[in-house]
């Protein structure tokens, strides 16, 4: 004689499908949350890299550069002008992204950006080129652009304002790093 046993300890097919569906919904939620966290981390990291870049550019302006006659800094400049143009008529064209200054040695030096706005350049005398050579002080990360803005303070010809911003699109969102400071020209008459 065959005895049919009723097994109440096993799961039915409907229960298994419902448990699987709940597990899939939970896994999709965890995956989406992970993607949100990764995107936020990448945006924050990119913002920090761009902020570091702005800090480096301003620090390089303040620290100056080693040249054959010593270290020259904007703060030790005798005079300055904001603009562009061929020498000797430097600054004949208004351009807030170029700053020309003259040190106590009477030599003209200037800061500017390349045409694609991805490199910050300092033109100054070097041992190999006493008349001046371009030195790239900072290269922006791939896909980022630099905005450089110099302005004179209205109340004083001894102070120069410097604003630097780096912008990059990450996942379709603009990410920026920026810094603004003032530099005092101590030797300005």
Structure explained in plain terms:
The protein has 189 residues and is an alpha+beta fold. 27% of the residues lie in helices and 35% in strands. It has one helix at residues 13-63; strands spanning 65-67, 70-72, 79-82, 99-102, 108-113, 119-124, 133-139, 144-152, 159-170, 173-184. The chain has a five-stranded antiparallel beta sheet with strand order 3-4-5-6-7, with helices on one face. Strands 8-9-10 form a three-stranded antiparallel beta sheet. Strands 1-2 form a two-stranded antiparallel ribbon. β8 (144-152) and β9 (159-170) form a beta hairpin. The N and C termini lie far apart (118 Å).
Q: How many runs of DSSP E, i.e. beta strands?
A: 10
* Alpha-carbon Rg, integer: 30 Å
Q: How would you describe the shape?
A: rod-shaped
Beta-strand fraction estimate = 25-35%
- What percent of the residues sit in helical stretches (DSSP H or I)? 25-40%
* Tally of DSSP helical segments: 1
**End-to-end separation:** 118 Å
Low-confidence stretches: none
N to C succession of SSEs = HEEEEEEEEEE
Main sheet record: 5 strands, antiparallel
Strand order of the largest sheet: 3-4-5-6-7
Q: What is the residue-mean pLDDT, rounded to a whole number?
A: 84
Structural class: alpha+beta
The total number of structural domains is 1
């Amino acid at each position: 004689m065959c005895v049919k046993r009723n097994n109440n300890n096993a799961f039915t097919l409907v229960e298994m499908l419902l448990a699987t569906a709940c597990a899939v919904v939970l896994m999709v939620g965890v995956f989406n949350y992970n993607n949100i966290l990764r995107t936020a981390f990448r945006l924050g990291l990119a913002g920090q890299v761009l902020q570091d870049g702005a800090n480096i550019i301003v620090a390089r302006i303040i620290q100056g550069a080693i040249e054959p006659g010593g270290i020259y800094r904007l703060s030790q400049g005798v005079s300055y002008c904001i603009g562009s143009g061929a020498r000797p008529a430097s600054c004949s064209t208004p351009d807030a992204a170029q700053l020309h200054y003259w040190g106590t040695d009477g030599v003209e030096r200037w800061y500017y950006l390349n045409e694609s706005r991805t490199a910050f350049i300092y033109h100054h005398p070097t041992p190999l080129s006493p008349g001046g050579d371009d030195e790239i002080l900072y290269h922006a990360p791939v896909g980022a652009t630099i905005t450089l803005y110099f302005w004179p303070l209205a109340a004083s010809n001894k102070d120069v304002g410097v604003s630097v911003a780096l912008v990059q699109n990450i996942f379709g969102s603009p990410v920026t790093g920026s810094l603004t400071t003032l530099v005092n020209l101590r030797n300005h008459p």
